[in-house]
Design a protein that fits this description.
The protein has about 290 residues and is mainly alpha-helical. The protein contains 11 helices and no strands. InterPro entries: EamA_dom, EmrE-like, Small_drug/metabolite_transptr. It is a multi-pass membrane protein.
Length: about 290
Amino acid sequence: MPPALGMVLVAAVLHAVWNLAAKRSRGDSYLFVWCYMLVSAVLCLPIGLVLLATGSGHWSWRLVVGPLVSAVLHIVYSLVLQTGYERADLSVVYPVARGVGPLVTMVVAVVVLGERPGPTALAGGLLVLAGITVVTTVRRQRTGLPFTGGLAYGAATGAMIAAYTLWDDHSVTGWGLAPVVYFAFAVTMQAALLTPAAVRRRAALRAVVTGHWREIGTVAVLSPAAYILVLIAMRTMPVTIVAPARESSIVIGSLLAWLLFREAQPVRRLIGAVVVLGGITLVALA
């Protein structure tokens, strides 16, 4: 297995875990997102500055514009996702988001960026998405959360996933920005852009921090780690391969949700996981 593909699969595990943590949070979605972005910025910015000072990249306008656009896209993505988790089931929002994202990414990468994945890679990507469909097509039972609302939030989140994936791929491959430095600047800008409104809601801040400090810490650490691995992988693998492979996180998330919360139809989810594994194998052999 290529090392870059291994990075993407590790990132998929981390991504599934932090999404489960995000789903557990309750209360002010905006403040929750701001808190974990702020902690991520505190952790990542010093590392990014040290790497920049020691030769990993150099100062330029691209190191401002690239992270700034990424920050805006990630803010919209994070707020839509967190709101979706509060108003609908994770088993609807998460799979729809992770399924729509790579489909849009693959189409745009081929049409706009001119990438030409081989037939084996394309077949593997389609098989990954087929496995995701098997895992997530579960009859809705005994739930008071809206299915259509989950679809809407999931689709909107998926569109943002495609947008930031393509932009970040352009920034780290087309512009050659160092992935860790790039992410450190982007997450710092995310926290900075959200701060003015967060300060005005400081009355609710204590409840968010004291009630969900574990979830904040989990997302703050695992989300950057997962995405930095993806950015590094993008430098050696086409985005049309990275995007579908990282969606194995939906299978991992579904299995973890069953193990932790005893969700329905574990056999169906395991069958879907095997299908996804077959798709990832094809991608690795492409």
